[in-house]
Design goal:
Blueprint (H helix, E strand, L loop, with lengths): L19 H13 L5 E10 L11 E2 L1 E15 L3 E6 L6 E4 L13 H13 L6 E8 L9 H17 L8 H13 L6 H8 L4 E6 L5 E5 L7 E7 L7 H19 L12 H6 L4 H25 L7 H13 L6 H12 L4 E5 L6 E7 L3 H15 L5 E4 L7 E2 L1
Parallel strand pairs: 4-6
Antiparallel strand pairs: 1-3, 1-13, 2-7, 3-6, 4-5, 7-8, 9-11, 9-12, 10-11
Helix pairs in contact: 2-3, 2-4, 3-4, 3-5, 4-5, 6-8, 8-9, 10-11
The protein binds alpha-D-galactopyranose (GLA).
């Protein structure tokens, strides 16, 4: 990947010896003095559409990215876990006491300890292990680096321990690690995406039932590309704002007398809004209800092979996040506007918000020009130079 403005990185590594899987194995050998028993990869994700709908029991449509986190691992005796990572100088080691209750391991290793904790809580006999982590998923960019780490560790421990778990059960375990051990009140989208996605497809997930449909999303065949712009805007109070949006949605559902905002049909939105006194609450509800409908409309278009026509829905989703849910920041809005002005079919922020990434649906031949246009708009405003990735829908977590 490159951070030079105006160049879209080719996801295929040129030298397999230096790609992320090679780095994980080398990191393992360096730290533990022996080769790993195996390597497990999990991708970052982008969400095509459906933001802040997952914890409202609604619909999302993410796809996995070619950017991956790889865990090299080997079993060890006893209930002890050692982990090192190329993104930290501090290796961590913990035992049964530290994973007996949330909060005892902190920092990046909490994601690893959280997975061990969640598995043990669910009654699994988790093997002791040594682990080494390498990752191409940028941290803090809204591309689910944390879910990628959880999923890669989970895949490794499940395989090493021969644990009886289906792919359908894994996302909830990873989410539990994040919600209850790390303490971030996220929904089920990211963990589902990084575990259940398939190459060439977007994952249509009903977050209430966890039913999935793999929707063909073959950008290359349609001459299209999704350009991901990592705005590198500092996250501003993202954790607190996320939690407050979630709380606002839950209390709105209570006021409306429904289990979750998913239960307000788009056709009844006007009547539902009329029952709410507070303008801010009305806007939060309007975002969630219209966003669920946009996911359903996007799925219909993709099923009909009409990828280009999805563009206006993406842009409408962005306007809704900006004006009604109020989770965008100027860098994000600028990237969307510049991509649209450069001819993108549609563009929107992807992920939880308050910084992070924008995705733009563009003709493949226009990807570099679109990146240039965004980079120029950033330079004009004195923003940090953005980074660009071309997002080919990739597979979910698997053993290499
Ligand atoms: C973050 C959370 C997800 C989801 C998105 C917003 O990525 O982890 O559960 O709520 O924000 O759509």
């Amino acid at each position: 990947m490159t951070d030079r403005a105006g160049e879209v990185a080719d996801p295929a590594p040129a030298d397999p010896g230096r790609d992320v899987a090679g780095r994980a194995a080398a990191g393992f050998l360096h730290r533990y003095g022996e080769p790993p028993a195996g390597r497990w990869a999990a991708p970052g994700r982008a969400n095509l559409i459906g933001e802040h709908t997952d914890y409202n029991d609604g619909f999302v449509l993410p796809f996995a990215l070619p950017l991956r986190t790889v865990v090299a691992a080997a079993p060890r005796d006893g209930a002890r876990w050692s982990v090192c990572s190329e993104f930290s100088e501090h290796p961590a080691e913990f035992g049964a006491d530290e994973v007996a209750a949330p909060g005892r391991v902190t920092g990046w290793a909490a994601y690893v300890a959280g997975v061990v904790w969640a598995l043990r809580e669910a009654g699994h006999d988790v093997p002791g292990a040594r682990l080494a982590v390498a990752s191409d998923v940028p941290v803090g960019s809204g591309l689910s680096s944390s879910a990628a780490l959880e999923a890669a560790v989970l895949a490794a421990l499940v395989d090493l321990g021969g644990l009886e778990l289906t792919a359908e059960q894994l996302p909830r375990l990873a989410q539990r690690a994040e919600n209850a051990y790390v303490g971030a009140p996220t929904g089920i989208m990211d963990q589902s995406a990084v575990i259940r996605c398939r190459a060439g497809h977007a994952l249509f997930l009903d977050c209430r039932t966890e039913a999935v449909e793999h929707i063909p999303f073959d950008l290359a065949a349609a001459g299209l590309a999704v350009l991901v712009v990592d705005t590198r805007a500092p996250h501003r109070h993202a954790d607190g704002e996320y939690a407050s949006r979630r709380a606002a949605c839950e209390s709105a559902a209570e006021l409306l007398g429904v289990p979750a905002l998913r239960d307000v049909p788009a056709a009844d939105l006007g009547a539902a809004l009329a029952r709410l006194d507070d303008d801010e609450t009305r806007r939060r509800v309007r975002h969630v209800v219209t966003e669920d409908q946009r996911v359903l409309d996007t799925v219909e278009l993709l099923r009909a092979g009409r990828i280009r026509d999805v563009g206006p829905l993406l842009t409408a989703s962005h306007a809704s996040m900006r004006d009604d849910f109020e989770i965008t920041v100027p860098e994000v809005d600028t990237a969307v506007e510049a991509a649209l002005a450069a001819g993108a079919y549609g563009a929107r922020m992807t992920g939880g918000g308050f910084g992070g990434c924008v995705l733009a649906l563009v003709d493949a031949a226009r990807a570099d020009a679109t990146a240039d246009a965004v980079a120029s708009a950033y330079a004009e405003r004195g923003y940090r130079t953005p980074r660009f990735h071309r997002a080919t829908p990739a597979p979910g977590a698997h053993r290499l």
